[in-house]
Amino acid sequence: MSDKKRRSEPRTGSPSSEADASERLLQAEGADMPQRTRSRRRRRKSVAPPETGPRSALKHPVATAGDADIAARIRELEERLDRMISEHAREHEAEADGERPAPMAPTGPSALPVTTTPAEPAGVLGAGGDLVAPDFYVRKWGRLGLRSRSEEVDEFGYDPVYEEKVLPVFEFLYEKYFRVQTHRIERIPSDGRCLLVANHSGTLPLDGIMLRLAVRNAHPRHRNLRWLVEDAIFHFPFLGSFANRLGAVRACQENAERLLDHDALVAVFPEGMKGIGKLFRDRYKLQRFGRGGFVKLLLRTRTPVVPVAIVGGEEASPTIARVEYLSRAFGLSFLPFTPTFPFLGPLGLLPAPTKWKIYFGDPIHFESHGVEAADDEVLVGRLAERVRGEIQTMLNHALAERRSVWLG
Amino acid sequence: MTRAGLDPSDIRPPDPTASRAAAEASSTDGKPGQLPLAGRPGVDDKPGLGRVQSGTRVVAVTGAAGFLGCNLIGSLEEDDRIARVVALDVSPASTAGRKTRLYDVDLTHPTAESRIAEIFTAERVDTIAHLAFLASPTHASAWAHELESVGTMHVTIAARHAQVRKFVLWSQTSLYGAHPSNPNFLTEKHPLRAPKSEPYFGDKIEAEEQARKLLLRSPSAIVTILRTAPILGPTVHNAVTRYLAHKLVPTAMGYDPLVQFLHEVDAIAALHLAVLRDVRGTFNVVGDGVLPLSTVIKLAGRVAVPIPHPIAETIAALGWVAQLVDVPPSFLKYLRFMCVADGQRAREAMGFRPAYTSREALLDFISAQRLRDVKLLSETPA
What we know:
- The complex is a heterodimer.
- By secondary structure, chain A is α/β, with parallel strands linked by helices.
- Chain A has 17 helices and nine strands.
- By secondary structure, chain B is α/β, with parallel strands linked by helices.
């Protein structure tokens, strides 16, 4: 009984182990040890912490002797580590030699049979042995995988490095494919919190990322737009985490409130899944605006709202039919049928090259209603209806102006 | 590297020379391990004694031989405001020093309650840090239930008997559960939605309920619940460190949730802070920042093995029944959905500021794990 407990929460602080870190970590000098080891072992810019030696010496003048002592120990440990790693690598090569003769062997020295000289000190041959050790590839793989992403994402999961990598695809869609045009984008305030409310469309909802790019490219302040996506997208395999790294946030009151409290620019599509799933014959007919959650949000956080009408998205991937009874098996609320999907497989998800136009309306301020108004369901419903009407009017105007689906 | 996020007025920097000096200074004052120094006149009245302040606090630590208990005792040993530490566990805490009194108490024993109450009364305990919880799931669920749920009941009832002023409970943010409907940051107001059918979570949720019941029965008591994020660090061992210790790390295909960690030093500092400061209520104790799970695995130098989650769940269920895997299938939810908590309240009400971000905690764990990988750092002999 006691044995089991000890196994699950092993005791620490045994005097025998070399890096008895728990005890040392609790001491000021000891806390430096893993840090320093790390900064030498990992050559990544962001990792290397500032040299802490002088600072800790200032704080604890008595500690310098201990510091040097620890530094010496670290050096000794690292030497041992290097030796062990090279030995380890050589062992592995010895095992692997028979089955796969030098899998990569890109350089001369590495192709040499290292096994013949087992007592060789780690030198050029040791480095060659590295190439054969599986650990080496694991580490390399980890590095390669990290090259296209930053080590840190923001608190909602947006990864700027990753976005930079995939942006060309979306820039192509934005510039060349949909030829997105924005109208009166300067109506978005240059700073402070603001909520964009837009109509939703598309089998694969590209309007969020297109709106993000529009604000980024065309707005004078190039603001960073975060858009909220419904659960069905956010928890859809691959798609959800992909959108999350690009700046999408799961749509819920808490997240939106937190974003607006940080004075962010947030876009919502209150139609939600109903907007994505509406049929081609219902295009640009705004669906029910959820339960008015976005109005409650606006009232609580005292945020101005900018209505947005996106024209062109509906024709890009028109939904002809919606199958609901089969789609449960896939964890979806419905399975859309477009002229190309699912008949052409995943290729059928490619949108048609329609001309997109994004219209921005005048900011609407609800601040005069006060924070308590969020509990007034009648008022919330009325305000939601007002925003919805505004967007519908903008859509109708835009559609009346439009001459061609393809050319605008 | 900044030191642990504590107000220096609260916890002295654990400078070994200073603490030794303090220990010597106080040992000249009175017999070690005897009644608190402040009990004698003349000691407490002199503010000019320098840093050596005689404490009056008596802190009981359950689960004293566990990772948190052991390190908390070490940290309390160096705190002058603490007169004595009463360590309760089935095996002695290795950090026990001059101030600590060890008691061999088995919380799963039927008579534990009266025994603990006796100890609390005799030692005049004023604060209990209840840390006797398992850090990773076990197949011995009946025993775990006795230890965690029933054990907490024993301790809380004993606390009421002995009229203990303060009760600090260790809990975990994983009890919120990983759900698709979780917001990015869970606050203390959110209900604990981890599957209660899973003993690992169910027992801990029950333990929290016991603590709340204690508050209900004796409203004057100060009940502090600390929900820690998954703890990582060079020496700690739990379900997460075990997960990341594998060369091949299973993940849910197509899912990449955000995760957060807490450094072990911060966890101990938070417990210490909760012992010192009288703050009521529940607090999430988390490191700053979040990381995608895939980045965590890449940073750790592991290879992710994406498995479609229905298959993974089947394998895990079979493996768990056959006792081939250490982790029950309900844990797989944490590979798909977020369970990230907001540490704002602990920052504001308790003044806790973590010294390590989630990423730094992970990197610190990794640097130690690398040594373990090549057998340079041996495990503590059990």
